[in-house]
Here is the input.
Amino acid sequence: MKTKTVIFGLMALLLAGCGLGQAGENGDEPQEITVFAASSLTDAFTELAATFEAQNEGVEMVLNFAGSSQLAAQLSEGAVADVFAPANPAQMEAVVDNGRIAAGSEKLFVSNRLTVIVPDDNPAEITALKDLAQPGVQMILAVEGVPVRQYTDEIVAALPADFQTQFYGNLVSEEDNVRQVAAKIALGEADAGIVYTSDVTPDIATQVRQIPIPEAQNVVAAYPIAPLADAPSPTLAQSFIDFVLSDKGQAILSRWGFGPPPID
Here is the structure.
């Protein structure tokens, strides 16, 4: 399995015309499937890909993780891929509108929730969402356009105007994706950040504390998945999507903190 970060003009070395689980024409090269996935899916999709490879001899997964808006931009500019799995429907729609994904082929496959995280020593003594608007709190969010920021903005927009002003006034850094937010809070580089609950992974769980966002104020993050209309390996693409939607695939996602897909 290969894992890649954001690479514009990504060149895919995909072998067309090979059946699922079969090697290349000479029988000595693996068949690749390239998946563009939101950074919040890093751990879950790494395990999903390893399991899929184990079940399909001769298949090699190429995983490209980044902010969903960055991935959508790459795909809209012609980057080659087989599957796209962003963290919200808006980024999927952008690629559909660009003609790279057939309308109606996308399916919601998982859900998530947002949470406030603070360093384990909680220097700003934050105990609730409202504390993020207190004077002097240093806060990190993802950049505008990234799904977790869009969900965050949706939560904040429903709160009083004075909270909104103070909240955004405390913003000291904006990161390209949600995993960068989580990493910086774990390192103590700010007092608080907002991420998905699934981003509190085992490698940072002892370095941060979660401050739950009340159910009435939280939002459900819905993740869609779809094959690219011009996927080099369309059969493999659909097979991987079917695996993600299967009971086994959903169990892996659940272990990494994701919820079931929202009901349409």
